[in-house]
Amino acid sequence: MGRPIQSKHSIRLSDCDTVMEHKTWMCLICGWIYDEAEGDPEHGIAPGTKWEDVPMNWTCPECAARKEDFEMVAI
Ligand SMILES: [Zn+2]
């Protein structure tokens, strides 16, 4: 209530919301790249689908590896 607010780090969470960042994920088995911006339309994953929104039963188009076999990569 009457407590002074000491903010050492300013609030910038809302500033980051406008930045749409697409991540890429690589299959550790065959090296196939999943790009969130491109999705996997041939297998029902619309472009722009975030990795976390890709269904758990989705598998790598190349080698049928599961999501847990993918690792995020920075390009
Ligand atoms: Zn694969």
Strand content: 5-15%
Alpha-beta classification: mainly beta
The strand order across the widest sheet is: 2-1-3
> What is the level 1 CATH name?
Mainly Beta
Shape: elongated
Pattern of helices and strands:
HEEE
Bound molecules: zinc ion
> In angstroms, what is the radius of gyration?
18 Å
Q: Which architecture would the CATH scheme give at its second level?
A: Single Sheet
Summarize the amount of helix as a percent range.
under 10%
CATH topology call: Rubrerythrin, domain 2
In whole angstroms, the N-to-C terminal distance is 47 Å
Question: How many DSSP helices?
Answer: 1
Most strands sheet? 3 strands, antiparallel
Number of domains as seen in the coordinates: 1
The overall average pLDDT, rounded, is: 86
Count every beta strand, where a strand is a DSSP E run of 2 or more residues.
Answer: 3
Low-confidence stretches: none
Kindly describe this structure.
This protein is mostly beta strands and 75 residues long. It has one domain: Rubrerythrin, domain 2. The protein is built from one helix and three strands. Strands 2-1-3 form a three-stranded antiparallel β-sheet, with no helix packed on it. The longest helix is centred in the N-terminal third of the chain and has 4 residues, at 13-16. The chain is elongated and about 60 Å long. The model has no long low-confidence stretch (mean pLDDT 86).
Quick summary:
Helix content is 5%, strand content 15%. It has 75 residues and is mainly beta.
